[in-house]
Amino acid sequence: MLESELLDEIKKLFSRRNDSVEIGIGDDGAVYIPKGKQVVVSDVAVEGVHFRCDWSSYQQIGRKVTAANLADIFVMGGVPRYLLVALVLPDRHLSGALEIASGIANEADLVGAQVIGGDLSTGNELTISITAIGEVTNSVGRDGAKIGDRVLISELPGASAAGLDFLRSGDAISNNTIKNLVDQHLAPSINYKKYRDSIGKFNSAIDTSDGLLVDAFRIAQASKVKIHLSTENLKSSQLHLLNPERFLDWVLSGGEDHKLLGTSNEEIDGFTEIGKVEAGSGIYLDGNPISVSGYEHRWKD
Euclidean distance between the first and final Cα of the chain, in Å? Predict the structure, then answer.
């Protein structure tokens, strides 16, 4: 199949009309009419690093990398509008190209975002890179946490890590609880309405892509404060009942949940309070300092 032929098929999946887009897919670049301030994020997913094709469907792969970008826009206080998608497609994955595109389109549709361009290439490993563009009125960073703020999260994390552990075990899925955890790792379900409704209510925010401890530490470090978490507030009945010995590790150190973690001086509907912002530095759990662990990419020297 020729690149032009595949692009023609992909374009049909991204053909939703948007009056703000003057030139979309098919030219050397996209032209859109911005409405105020813009926030731009980028994320890349590589076969064997971020997903495995023997575990995931092509739809799930497309959804997963799209969700990571959309979540990043929301935690910055923005609303996603446009996506640019670059796809490295090996021959062995040609049959999945339209399913990947469909997964991207379906996830973007959940927030009303539109794919307006990108690039397509052959290569050795299936790789998807997405740049998302959003509109923002009052941006939120990691450095705005204030002493006395509540530490809030959209949902308790850990499901993705638990699902990954189960996949690695090779055991058969035996019940709906385990299936749901596996599904959350392969393609997280995000309550985008909750994210949208919380815009303007956070002093600081971050996406929990690398683990609760790592990302809470990033807020504490950027804001020059101490974040004090409570184990009691982190207990998820589902994970705790599934494995009382492992649940805290899943919750604290598991990544790829894409929950909105932030600090605010007020309660926010639908968010769970898991701690407080205090004077000092670092991360504390139940009154004790705790070392930070989570996922980080590593390179050989």
Answer: 40
Same domain, 203 and 118: no
Q: Identify whether 143 is part of a domain.
A: no
Q: Pick from 162, 175, 160: which is nearest to 71 by CA?
A: 160
Residue 264: domain span: 150-289
pTM of the model as a whole: 0.92
Tens digits of residue pLDDT in 38-78: 999 999 999 999 999 999 999 999 999 999 999 999 999 99
Q: At a CB cut-off of 8 Å and minimum separation 6, what does 129 contact?
A: 42, 43, 44, 45, 85, 86, 87
Is 78 found in the same domain as 25?
yes
Q: Does a structural domain hold residue 168?
A: yes
The three-state (H, E, C) secondary structure of 184-215, written as one string: HHHCCCCCHHHHHHCCCCCCEEEECCCCHHHH
Spatial neighbors of 175 by CB under 8 A, at least 6 apart, are: none
* Token pair listed for 195: 């994210």
